[in-house]
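Treating backbone geometry as a discrete language has practical consequences that deserve illustration. The amino acid sequence and the backbone structure tokens for this protein are reproduced below.
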Amino acid sequence: MCGIVGLCGYASDGDRLAQHLERMNASQVHRGPDDHGVFTDPDAAVALAMQRLAIIDVAGGAQPMVSADGRYALVFNGEIFNAPALRADLEAAGVAFVSDHSDTEVLLRLLMRDGAAALPHLNGMFALALYDRTAGTLLLARDRMGIKPLYWTAESGRLAFASELKSLIDLPWLRREIDRQSLYHYLTLQFVPGADSILAGVHRLQPGHSLTWDVAARQGHVERWWRPVHRPDDTVAPGDWPALVRETLAGAVKGWSQSDVPIACSLSGGLDSSAIVGLLAETGGRVQTVSLGFTGAGEADWNELTHARLVAQRYGTDHSEIVLEPEALLDDLTAMVYSLDEPYGGGLPSWSVFERMSRTVKVAMTGSGGDELFGNYGRWTALEGGRLARIAGPRRANGVDMARFTRDFTDRYFYFPDADKRAVLADAGAGMTTTTEWLFGHYDATPSPNVRDRVAAIDFTTQLPDEFLAMTDRFSMAHSLEARTPFLDNAMVDLALRIPAAARTRPTDLKGLLRRAVAPLLPEPLLTAPKRGFVIPLGAWMRGRLRPVVERLLAPERLAEQGLFTATLHGRWVRPHLSGEADHTRTVWAALMFQLWHRRFIEGAVGLPAAAPAEALAEL
């Protein structure tokens, strides 16, 4: 696991190039504190660098990895879990390896032979950059599901890329301007979606995409090399799917457990993470597990520590628990803002889990992706007609128009309707694609004929990579911890895309198929327990400890000076929430998190430590 950075065409002055590269690389040392390396081709003004977290072939996997003839140079963030099989194929074809079992060398050799055509054969999580000195090209690529991040920016024929936005934001030629469309979407979704970041001119390479940059021509093009497509397999008997799911997930867990260092599991007590623990335990060896719980009012309604203990006891894991007062999360709030790179108004508790795990291990297994593959949180039920769907089964998707989609999807499941946003944005959202239109574009472009598959496609291509996987990557890597997501193994995703929608999920039992698949692995209470989740008391925080921060950063005078929002944001949303007249928790929280991010990254509060309290950011 690593952080990677690179520059192309920015300066022929080798000293200047090295200085920029060094600063970029140093800003993400947390992604790989074990080692670092640099490759430069001054004649072509190409430079690559990385920070390494050594997991596989600790001795032989150093980067940048350069071919023996000096033609190719590779920097790579992630793990290729089918590297042993790929290596065997390459050796059978006469390729001689230098390292003992480095997946980086396997990747380099495969790319040397096949170029971008190698990408569909990779199973794992990755963001990579391959420089071909002879061809004069730089290939950037990202894994199928978007588990590992990659930002890039190109201006005046110059290219820069990095694993994290913070590595680019201090480049002297980069404009610190807000991308208005990204801000528009953020207010509704509470995460920044799609190919454009929150900064104008800085892009994310999308999941399953590659960018090929012509060094001499100083231009590049982006291509999509993989997309999720539902192809229901009606030849499989309905009763056979559970065994297929369990067998495929077991193979994924075994493959994704390859490591030369210890592994632990994040164990929430829910279905997904508990299944991962059980399958990992069945591969042999002792498993470490970490669970998080909170004290406070209503704790019995959402606390899953009891279920987590049952799983830990069943498999004899080395189990530890973290029990926090909810407000303890506020102590690390600005550290989270700094680590996230972009504004984010979603969940925070996994920060504490990853911090605890990083004290003893470098690798963490999580259950991320299980909900998206098997239930989609039930967000398709209203589009299908609610109770009607229980009788009729998956409805055809061509009966859903924009008005229906707005009412039964966007406005139902997200946080800030398009009509309300125009009143709080200084530009009134002029020229913006509405968030509903953007989401409906994903829905409408999905070739599947039924609603459940189309909503799953939205999840796969928006919230999963841009919120959940992004948060998991940043929070884990902030603690120099590699988070692995075996539910997103190639074979597992491919299998889920084959399962007919009616067999994959149902209105009355969203994850019934997965539950039947993993039932032999889990204690009985977990199989009947409803899905739970800790609800952070954001509203109370903003009326309590964070009130002075909210009052300062969302004051009408500051909003006017900033020029992004109107006073309506304060008058209609912030003031009534603070006074207790109304509950606008999600709206005010999203605005506050944006302002904390803006204070840190745009207004230049870089002199403060990453973990400075929110109050300190507000007072600058």
User: Anything to note?
Assistant: The chain has a mean pLDDT of 91.
